[in-house]
Amino acid sequence: CGRRHDEEKCSSDMTSDPAPSQPRTISALHGTILVGVDFSEPSRHAFEEAVRLARGSGSRLIAAHFIYDEEMAHFVHLKDMTEDALLDARTTHLQRWAREVAGDSFQLECVVAVGHPFAEVVKIVCRERVSLLVLGAQGESHEDRDYAVGFLAQSCLRRCPCEIMLVRKDHTRPFTKVVVAVDFSENSKRAVREAVMVARAE
Questions:
Q1: Cα separation of 161 and 146, whole Å?
Q2: Angle, nearest 10°, between helix axes 41-57 and 83-102?
Q3: How far is the C-alpha of 61 from the C-alpha of 58, rounded, in Å?
Q4: What is the pTM of this model?
Q5: pLDDT in tens, 47-97
Q6: 81, 199, 200 from 42: Cα distances, Å
Q7: Does residue 36 contact residue 133 with C-beta atoms inside 8 Å?
Q8: Nearest CA to 163 among 24, 17, 15?
Q9: Could you report the per-residue pLDDT of 71-85, keeping only the tens digit for each?
């Protein structure tokens, strides 16, 4: 998995310089974890990891699925569906998928948003004061399969204003060993604290 240890100020264009802020950790809280879902195998593993972390830390969990504007227009035209009907159908599918993976007893929130996934992620992160974003390292697109880290994950690592965990497609079970690289900087101190919390949550 990979994790981002610098933070930026929430803004509409995400182009401002990073603003100083207090370190946030999974333990700080019980805060909010956001996990992106595109129903691919990597996103399933990311969702499973997010559920484990939420259970272990008592955090609120939001599962989010995103529909591109072009995809929405295509489905509305091709299937003669209204936007509201498509949103309802995707939300129902996400809820069923989440219950299948996490179990009926686990409480979480499901959100379906229309727009560019990165922009919608940032909106949710800022609106819900998300502490941790969990994503599959790769998405469902054919382009993502040629890279170790997909386009959405890359964009979020560079510019999303919260901590980030990327889950590889071969990560199918809880972490059993957590290794932290330390250079004695403030960021490495945060990395150690995060690693301890992940180990405890697992």
A1: 26
A2: 60
A3: 9
A4: 0.80
A5: 999 999 998 888 999 999 999 999 898 888 887 788 999 899 999 999 999
A6: 29, 21, 23
A7: yes
A8: 24
A9: 898 888 887 788 999
